[in-house]
Structures
1.
Amino acid sequence: MGDAAELRSRGLDRTVARRAWGLARPYRRRLLGFVGLIVLAAAVSAAPPLLIREIIDGAIPDGDRQQLVWLFVGLVGVGFVVAVVSMAERWLSASIGEELILDLRTMLYRHVHTMPIAFFTRTQTGSLITRLNNDVIGAQRALTGTLGGIVDNLIGVTITLIVMFTLEWRVTLIAVSLLPLFIVPARVVGRRLQALSREGMGLNAEMNTVMTERFHVAGALLVKLFGRIDREVETFHDKAERVAAIGVKQAMTGRALFASLGLVGALATALVYLVGGWLVIGDAADIQIGTVVALGLYVTQLYGPLAQLSNARVDLMTALVSFERVFEVVDLPRPIEDAPDAVELTHPVGRVTFDHVWFRFPAASGSHLVSLEGPTAEHGDDASDWILRDIDLDIAPGAMVALVGRSGAGKSTLSSLVPRLHDVTEGAVLIDGHDVRDLTLASVADAVGVVSQDPHLFHDSIAVNLRYARPDASDADLVRVARAARIHDTIAALPDGYDTIVGERGYRLSGGEKQRLSIARVLLKDPAIVVLDEATAHLDTESERLVQAALKETLHGRTSLVIAHRLSTVVDADQIVVLDAGRIAERGTHTELLAAGGLYAELARTQLVGVG
Ligand SMILES: Nc1ncnc2c1ncn2[C@@H]1O[C@H](COP(=O)(O)OP(=O)(O)O)[C@@H](O)[C@H]1O
Ligand SMILES: [Mg+2]
């Protein structure tokens, strides 16, 4: 990522931090306890060098064995207290951290699901999943890891410095004077590490995207059919190689920091013994051996935390990058959501009205995220041309309207406005006289059933897939709809019947079986309105015959909008609407339109596959 992104993120730091803190608010009691334990641990860990000093300067020269034993007990006691406190501390940080991860994940997951379908067509699944995995964890680390670390180090350094200065200020001053030697390079390296980690996250997401796309059945199939395994491996290797390279860079930069820290620490320790020893030799009354040893021990406790503190800002900023990446998704506007005063559509009768509908796909900006889109991100940022122009159409409850027209005429787009996959640009779509934008999305979804060309099934049992339409459906219900959809016999013949697992995207079923299963699913939902979008286009004649029979059942007693490519389907329609470049060119019954000798007559001859 470039400098611009870096600058931008720095500007955002404060807002991001404030929002992150907002998320942590529910945990502030436990966070307080966590900080309290850190203070306790730091205070207790400062004791051992003092006890050791007493052993060297007091108990040993005095020959006081009893005091020696007490000091021993003290050292052991400190060990125990530190162990217990550190367990409690870890429990708090883990429970806060994991719950925060849970909050963030659920929030992201919900938000993503409320994005319009256009968002999913543009977004790379892999990048999105990375946000829900890695970045959420990074955000959690920011809170418990980085914040905890800063408090821990700050307390530790303060206590250690106070004790050291009290013990012997001259030696302490000399030891601490080495500090600037270290702080400046530590900051530089820290910044570099931050940049590397950000770049690493991006590269990881790219690699994940390649995998999620290819490991999908459809993706894997494409790779095989085109015999592109070697090239795929090569592309993947390139991405993975960049991840590997940045890993080495990160490791080396981190180690450079660590090594120089060790070096300065060793220098300081040596210096303490040199100056302390000098003082002991010169004037024994001034400073004793035990004090020198204690100071030597403290110095080693000082440099690690100090080094980390010098980087605290950078650490926090790095951690905030994760929060920022999470917020970025959460902040995406949701153009299609329930209006504040949305009403429930109860007992729909199924009148569908297009009232002078104009539609074009809106510009992508707003409800999309360039960083989730990969190489195609720059394209298509403008609103499309008009896809639908002044569509005026009223479908009476229970009537069947067939939509015909050339490919690209706007048939799918028109039908997608009914379940509100998109919102009209001008005009309105109404169900039972209510503008769909005034109804709750859930009740619209209940009222409208869609059967498309390529229905999706989840990797789960047939029963679970069917019950997706109605979780409380009984087994008898399942059989009833499966019979109606002409799929029951097929299911019953499977080894596990309704408990048979369908593969990812239902690959163990044929196209026609999948189609009939999806029809059964819609039947179970029992919607007042059904949209069929070329539901039989991909099927062979035998499957089609079954699917047609299933569809007849589905359409019975419901309002239907049928996009058909078979004359046989169209002939039965109450009204045929011919779309041409987004406009209604003709409408009428089969006989009327044929007699008119217009576009329909031409389509009927050339494009609609005649069966009867
Ligand atoms: N997401 C989109 N963004 C911009 N244009 C689109 C989008 N989806 C479809 N289109 C365009 O809208 C037009 C109508 O498409 P569609 O409704 O699928 O036609 P049909 O179903 O009649 O074949 C086509 O020109 C198509 O290229
Ligand atoms: Mg279409």
Note: Strands lie at 352-359, 388-395, 400-405, 426-431, 434-435, 448-451, 529-533, 559-563, 575-580, 583-588.
2.
Amino acid sequence: MSIDGHSSAPGASIHVNHWCEHEGCKQWGCYGHSPRKDVPARWWCAEHFPHKFGAELEAELKARG
Ligand SMILES: [Zn+2]
């Protein structure tokens, strides 16, 4: 066990780097959403989080490309 308790092994930690996916935004993506368990979460900062979930969010993401 390392001092900080984290491992760099893939899948060993949920603490991955995820930045806001909004184009041009360099802020930390502190708000994540995944429509299903088998779909990797997408991340946004507080400013760009779409504040929508489920089918509504999926539709918006699809529209954005
Ligand atoms: Zn952002």
Note: The radius of gyration is 14 Å.
